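Appendix C: a fully annotated inverse folding record. The material below is reproduced so that readers can follow the format used throughout the book. The structure is listed first as tokens, followed by the designed sequence.
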């Protein structure tokens, strides 16, 4: 049914959370999709036309509100594998607009596209429901909860040159990530022990951490800038290739482009540190040296092909927990989580831009 626990895939709890998340949203999408399909089906078969703008706007509004920040990369990839990622969230809203909001909209063609999309969504719903029923039958529901209250899941992927295939590499990588987390913790006045190791997957090894909002926010913001360095380099490579294709790239120009890439990499540490320092509560003690060491190791980790992924807490869960806490504690927690979610979203946006560039990498791009 689904791949679990190897090669960067998900464990039982991650799939359970994805299944629950998907079914919850599908049940809301079901009525909205059907409400839109009814008038379009009528217009495809009858000479008199019915309006459907209200139904379309209701569906678009819900699609745009679906929160992908609570999903990991592996969970999103599972939705892509099931063929439904393009029909939910912002991509789903774009699909509806591209299908219906066109100058030459044909009801019959639009109906066929909507039916295909809804069929895929329904099929995925049935598969997730079957998975949850299987877990229930095996008494495995909620059996592998990863995170503790108030902690956010961080997934560290050791891939490419950052991969781990022996004990020595594991020891070195563990020390690097201890230093990274320690630096971020010191910088935010948190104890390194506030970040917990809560799981791991084999194959392309993924270390699963759970950390407080302040450390997570800082890691996400640094990761955004680190990813930005890689994005800038790829953009320069694309520019070089464009000039090469036009047969106007000279040796001098190629050398200058290469120098730009190397200069950007060399200045990355200081430029990222300058961006992050204003976010710190203060610069006392060894905060700056520890933070600088963390940034350097994150740059090296990214250069080797390692990656960092975040699973932001569900906004509804945060609201519920905040209401249960005292007014002051609840407000403080909501503010910290909101900052972490914003940082995660900004990182994900830059990471997606890098992915698009990577998918169109120049032939000789490094």
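Designed amino acids, in order:
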């Amino acid at each position: 049914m689904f791949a679990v626990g190897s090669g960067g895939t998900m464990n039982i709890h991650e799939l359970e959370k994805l299944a629950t998340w998907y079914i919850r949203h599908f049940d809301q999408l079901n009525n909205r999709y059907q409400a839109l399909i009814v008038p379009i089906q009528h217009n495809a078969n009858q000479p008199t036309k019915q309006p459907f703008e209200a139904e379309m706007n209701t569906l678009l509004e819900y699609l745009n509100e679906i929160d992908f920040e609570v999903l990991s990369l592996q969970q999103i990839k599972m939705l892509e594998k099931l063929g439904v990622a393009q029909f939910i969230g912002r991509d789903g809203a774009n699909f509806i607009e591209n299908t219906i909001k066109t100058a030459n909209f044909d009801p019959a063609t639009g109906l066929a596209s909507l039916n295909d999309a809804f069929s895929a969504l329904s099929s995925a719903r049935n598969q997730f429901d079957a998975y949850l029923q299987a877990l229930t039958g095996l008494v495995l529901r909620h059996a592998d909860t990863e995170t503790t209250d108030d902690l956010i899941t961080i997934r560290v992927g050791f891939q490419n040159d950052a991969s781990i295939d022996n004990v020595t590499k594991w020891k070195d990588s563990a020390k690097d990530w201890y230093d990274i987390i320690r630096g971020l913790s010191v910088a935010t006045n948190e104890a390194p022990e506030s970040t917990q190791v809560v799981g791991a997957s084999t194959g392309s090894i993924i270390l699963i951490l759970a950390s407080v909002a302040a450390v997570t926010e800082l890691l996400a913001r640094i990761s955004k800038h680190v990813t930005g360095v890689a994005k800038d380099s790829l953009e320069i490579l694309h520019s070089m290739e464009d000039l090469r294709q036009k047969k106007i790239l000279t040796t001098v120009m190629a050398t200058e482009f290469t120098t730009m890439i190397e200069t950007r990499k060399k200045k990355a540490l200081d430029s990222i540190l300058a961006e992050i320092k204003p976010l710190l509560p203060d610069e006392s003690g060894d905060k700056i040296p520890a933070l600088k060491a963390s940034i350097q190791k994150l740059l090296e980790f990214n250069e080797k092909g390692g990656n960092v992924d975040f699973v932001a807490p569900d906004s509804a869960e945060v609201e519920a927990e905040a209401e249960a806490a005292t007014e002051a504690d609840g407000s403080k927690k909501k503010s910290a989580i909101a900052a972490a979610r914003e940082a995660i979203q900004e990182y994900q946006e830059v990471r997606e831009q890098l992915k698009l560039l990577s998918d169109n990498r120049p032939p000789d791009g490094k």
